[in-house]
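Running low. Any example?
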Amino acid sequence: MDLTKPILVTGASGRTGRRVVAALAGRGGPVRAFIRRAEARDELKRGGASEIALGDLTDDASLRRALDGVGQILHICPPMHPREDAIARTLIDFCDEMNVGRFVLYSVLHPLLSDVPHHARKLEAERHLVGSGLPYTILQPSRYMQHLVPIWKSVLSTGVHDMPFSTTAQFSIVDLSDLAETCARVMMEPGHEGATYQLAGPEALSQNDMARILTQVLGKPIRAEAKPLDRFRSEAQAAGMPAERIETMCLMNAHYDAHGLLGNPNVLRWLLGREPNRFESFVRRELL
């Protein structure tokens, strides 16, 4: 693992990518941020990227330019991209051809869920990576605590925490700050080759549990509601979300309604060297 060479981070201008770039830079990592929009360049530079690679994940020429001379890649595909498996296969093959030292794949908790399309596509990416012969690490994060950020103003104004699945379904939600720190550790420290890491938060929480914690933190009543999928679909359409992504999210939320998304926090605890952040501490740090 040659840490003098740039670390390529794809999806660098996204919610996860920005945090990972900053965490890597904080550990002295030389980050080459792969972005699609030129207007994100200055923000990524301020966030710690030492180099910017402009291009598109579906364009082979820009991928090759971005990979030239890198020591490692952390591949974060845009959420629910309909070609995620094909993009990963292409990147993995290029990395093999160009002698990139290690491929770190940002996957998802329980990619084996065949009824959730973007999980299944990530599983295909994992399969191709493991079979490629490249040194690799696979990261499998759970659902983010940061799901609360886009609805926070509504929670405060209405007193309702509503998501499109059962209020009793449980999730091992995880703080994106912990995930970014874990990514930086895995990229900058030796000994993670050949590993697949489940990254689940320390509490199994339902919407009801989160509403109870929010009530305690805010000092006013917050209740949980299950938003009907039809309402979710109509709101997403009104917001201009692509139809394929809407249907993928509806299938995901139907699975969540029936099963939640649970994992074990021990691996994340070990990688961080401390207790992972809890939901209450996330709320107090990022939202109050």
Remarks:
- The chain has twelve helices and nine strands.
- The mean pLDDT is 96.
